[in-house]
Amino acid sequence: MTGPAMLARAAALRKSKLEAASRSSGETLFLYGSQTGNAMEVAKSLNAEAATHGIASRVLALDEKPLHKIPGTTKAAVFVVSSTGDGDPPENCERFHNALKRRTHAADLLAGVQFTVLGLGDSNYTTYMGVPRVFTSRLPELGAKRFYKNCEADEVDGLEDVIDKWKEGLWDALKAAVSEGANPPSVAPLPNGTANPPPASKESKLVGVPPLQKSRIKLIWQGAETIRTHGKLSSATNGTVTSLENGNPTIEYSAAHPFSAEVTAAEYMTASWSDRRVIHLEVDIARTGASYKPGDSLGVLPENRPELVDGLLERLGADGGRVFSVAAVDDVGTGQGDGSADVAGGARLLGHVGWPCTLREALLRHCDVTAVARKGLLRVLAEYCADSAERTELLMLSSRGGRDAYKVQIQEVRPSLLEILKRFPSCKPDLAHLLDSLPPLVARMYSVTCNANDAPGRVQVAFSVVKEQTGDGRVFHGVCTSWLERRLGLDPKTQRQFVANPSARVSVPVFLKSGGDFRLPEGLTAPLLMIGPGTGVAPFRGFLQQRRERLQAGGEAGPAWLFFGCRKEDEDFLYEKDLRKFETDGTLTKLVTAFSRAGDAKVYVQHKLSEHAEKLASLIQHGKAHVFICGDGVNMARDVHAALVKVLVDGAQMAEGDATALLNNMVKEKRYVRDIWS
User: Fold this and answer.
1) What is the DSSP secondary structure assignment for residue 439, as one 8-state letter?
2) In terms of Cα–Cα distance, which of 249, 205, 554 is closest to 392?
3) What keywords sit in the KW lines (predicted)?
4) What is the mean pLDDT of the chain?
5) What's the Cα-to-Cα distance from 514 to each of 20, 92, 441, rounded to whole Å?
6) Residues sharing a CB contact under 8 Å with residue 599, sequence separation 6 or more, in sequence order
7) Residues 506, 484: contact at Cβ < 8 Å?
8) pLDDT, tens digit (0-9, with 9 covering 90-100), for 32-56
9) How many Cβ atoms from other residues are within 10 Å of residue 79's Cβ?
């Protein structure tokens, strides 16, 4: 029987089994929305731990389980959800999140479903817990019943300790929720301890080894004709990007359906002698019929380094040219797979890989093999070590007791998957289990830096080529920005501008994403305060191009201030000519610059804000100014927010609490909007 025929037969068998199961009691699910991998790791760990408490369950990304498929198939659900940016849903739960917010659903859509929500967030962001709180409010509005207390875990306090405390009463409550006719009991904490302890005496001394996250899938190896049958094009062998979608105005492009955009221009904006590299990039989107506004973002789907992938395939002893499809392993009951990649409700496992495809393409374009290895992955790798000492070492790194070693050896050193496998040579992981344990290689988002009428049929972005020193002195290169630099053939000393070649066009897979509330106000009268150090200035170039266009149409305009910061004026003053021209022609009322390495004292944009406290406080308090911040969300956004509070305290003689309340109210009024990244 051929591969496709086996899949079809197995799918029918599985469908009948799942329908029978859902009629009896329904599934218990751990559903996650994760951008950086934290929520995914937590959900997979909870799913593995559930089995040690006698609870049969599955783990899925939220977009693998559509909202309308939950009624009738799900008895209890644990939602593990984070936000990305400044309150946006992660890529793998965007469709579910949008469906959940829709107000046209029946009030009893989720009647019979019991739930709890574990939200992951960072209180440095103004829209802290933005997405998790949509879940906590909307689920009961649609008839779902909470079976256990919701939890909000803040990265500022440390996620692990908060989640461990929340878990103490989860399992008793979940057992009651999935028992027919039972009501949730009063919360009784479970004793601390780890199920599935390693058998060896040396290993038994390890503290808090997590349960093994079992593989949800198995691989069905097929012939190359399978790709042709499914209409999927691939040119993974030469590292170029090819897409079926080369321009169709009727298609809505997304990370799952990108557009292959031809590069039309690119150049460095930083000095040749600088160790910092920032590139201005322009691509052609004319054939898509897509439109955008300043404030929107361009998503780029990157590739891992081909030599890294080839080395990984060699280390795994795998043929990268083999084509595979995915089948589900029945981890709820017998542990035997039945050949279907669909679980209850039509979820498609390993959907981010877009199988059928070659193993090399999966590792090149769809799996992140350079991300900081999660503890769940290390636990999986330990399972496949023939050498007991190597197994113990990996178990220790994955354990609660090995937290310090994990921080030093994994988080700070940032070894790639290949480097980890070379360190543990006896580890021979199962390919299906490995693919199911690796995080997706997600799109990188870059702020659009132009107004559509100033670049017809084109879109422009700016990005820093990421290069960071690791804990052991090596250099970590950002996946997407390094890939783009190589694709463009740029070198900061020998090739500073992209050279187009009609016989060898360079394209990259992209899609546009709305900036939401990160938009210029409709009129011209409201004062504007824009703060964008480094590449954070990118969207404000587009804002000012749009403002200039509106000014040319006539009308009274309020003041517009831009605060920009960089190292030195002659090193990395991005878009200097454009910004100075905006000030000269009146588009920009005042350009305030901060150079952090121009003298003995480091000067940042927050220092410059303080210098203009009285004027800025008046614009914010009395002029109803709109405040926009773009850039790093880890330190800069927090520091600038604190500086704005101080501006109001010093410039308007407000109490600190009142100043904070005013800024919080501006967030609600959408007059204080941030586009930040971590």
Assistant:
1) P
2) 205
3) Amino-acid biosynthesis, FAD, Flavoprotein, FMN, Methionine biosynthesis, NADP, Oxidoreductase, S-adenosyl-L-methionine
4) 86
5) 42, 17, 21
6) none
7) no
8) 999 888 999 999 999 999 999 989 8
9) 26
DSSP, collapsed to helix, strand or coil, labels residue 227 as: helix
CA distance 184 to 201: 39
Please write the tens of the pLDDT for every residue from 240-290: 333 335 556 556 788 888 999 999 999 999 999 999 999 999 999 999 989
What pLDDT sits at residue 331?
40
Q: What is the mean pLDDT of residues 7-34?
A: 60
Two tokens, residue 588: 């920009």
If DSSP codes are grouped into helix, strand and coil, which group holds residue 32? Answer: strand
Task: Compute φ and ψ for 40, nearest 5 degrees.
Answer: -60, -45
Residue 445 forms beta bridges with which residues?
Answer: 299
> Residue 217: what residue type?
I
- For the segment 308-359, what is each residue's pLDDT rounded down to a tens digit? 999 999 999 999 999 999 998 864 333 333 444 554 445 678 888 989 999 9
Count the Cβ atoms, other than its own, within 10 Å of residue 263: 19
Length of the chain: 678
User: Between 164 and 198, whose confidence is greater?
Assistant: 164
CA distance 349 to 337: 13
Instruction: Give the whole-angstrom CA distance, residue 550 versus residue 545.
Output: 9
What pLDDT score does 219 carry?
A: 95
Domains of the chain: 3-192 (3.40.50.360), 217-225+305-437 (1.20.990.10), 242-304+443-513 (2.40.30.10), 528-677 (3.40.50.80)
d(CA 39, CA 66): 18
- Nearest Cα to 561, choosing from 631, 612, 632? 612
Who contacts 473 (Cβ-Cβ below 8 Å, separation ≥6)?
Answer: none
Closest CA to 463 of 447, 450, 479: 447
Q: How many angstroms separate the CA atoms of 617 and 623, rounded? A: 9
Give strand ranges (E) for 346-387.
347-348, 357-358
**Position of tokens 């069905």?**
220
SS (HEC) of 533-589: CHHHHHHHHHHHHHHHHHHHCCCCCCCEEEEEEECCHHHHCCCHHHHHHHHHCCCCC
User: Residues 515, 517, 522, 527: what is their CA dihedral angle, to the nearest 10 degrees?
Assistant: -110
- Edge-to-edge strand list for the sheet holding 323-328: 217-222, 323-328, 357-358
Residue 60 near residue 33, CB atoms below 8 Å: no
Residue 87 tokens read as 């309150």
Identify the DSSP state of 69.
G
Contact 172, 185 (CB under 8 A): yes
Q: Which of 222-231, 237-246, 584-593 has the lowest mean pLDDT?
A: 237-246
Q: What are phi and psi of 108, to 5 degrees?
A: -110, 20
- Torsion-angle region of residue 674: left (phi > 0), alpha (psi -120 to 50) or beta? beta
